[in-house]
């Protein structure tokens, strides 16, 4: 009887190997999933921090006087404005990443058409060459793969 009890309580090497194979096929994908989940949530947090910085910089530009916003591309400097906050486009560090900022400003002509005389129904057209600016603020970061975000706004001088 002692011999029968010992046979039932014993586990063979083959059973142990099958159990390990089943556990490893379940544990390996779960481990990889957790690693990717952690990395993805970290990158998403970086995106939100950089997006918040871009929104602040765009609000600063929109608060500036129209003529203080320089046309063309500006990067890596402090843009001054009379009586308003200065726009800081110098690189900043966000979660172990060095983020560089640049601003592109394009002058857009604005045309107006209006009735000159109601009796003759003549149209008068006026074009303001510097009536509007298209402002784009761009953030770039990443050593292995380059990432970028940009925000665009329009500012008029009417």
Topology (elements, then pairings):
Layout: H1 2-9, H2 13-63, E1 72-75, E2 78-79, E3 87-88, E4 92-94, E5 97-117, E6 122-141, E7 147-156
Antiparallel strand pairs: 1-5, 2-3, 4-5, 5-6, 6-7
Domains (count): 1
| Global morphology | elongated
Fraction of helical residues: 25-40%
What percent strand?
35-45%
Radius of gyration computed on alpha carbons:
32 Å
Instruction: Return the structural class.
Output: alpha+beta
Order of helices and strands: HHEEEEEEE
Low-confidence stretches: none
Distance between the termini: 103 Å
- Helix count? 2
- Indicate the mean pLDDT: 84
Main β-sheet description:
5 strands, antiparallel
Number of strands: 7
What does this entry show, briefly?
With 158 residues, the chain is α+β, with helices and mostly antiparallel strands. The strands form 2 sheets. Strands 1, 4, 5, 6 and 7 form a 5-stranded antiparallel β-sheet that branches. It has a two-stranded antiparallel ribbon with strand order 2-3.
Using brief descriptors, characterize the structure shown.
single chain; 158 residues; alpha+beta; five-stranded antiparallel beta sheet; two-stranded antiparallel ribbon; 2 helices; elongated
């Amino acid at each position: 009887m002692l011999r029968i009890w010992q046979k039932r309580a014993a586990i063979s090497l083959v059973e142990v190997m099958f159990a390990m194979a089943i556990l490893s096929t379940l544990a390996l994908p779960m481990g990889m999933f957790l690693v990717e989940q952690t990395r993805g949530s970290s990158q998403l947090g970086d995106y939100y921090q950089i997006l918040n910085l871009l929104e602040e910089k765009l609000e600063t530009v929109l608060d500036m006087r129209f003529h203080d916003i320089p046309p063309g591309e500006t990067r890596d400097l402090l843009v001054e404005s009379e009586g308003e906050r200065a726009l800081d486009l110098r690189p900043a560090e966000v979660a172990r990443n060095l983020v560089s900022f640049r601003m592109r400003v394009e002058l857009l002509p604005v045309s107006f058409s209006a009735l000159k005389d109601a009796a003759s129904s003549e149209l008068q057209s006026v074009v303001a060459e510097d009536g509007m600016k298209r402002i784009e603020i761009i953030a770039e970061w990443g050593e292995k793969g380059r990432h970028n975000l940009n925000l665009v706004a329009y500012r008029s001088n009417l």
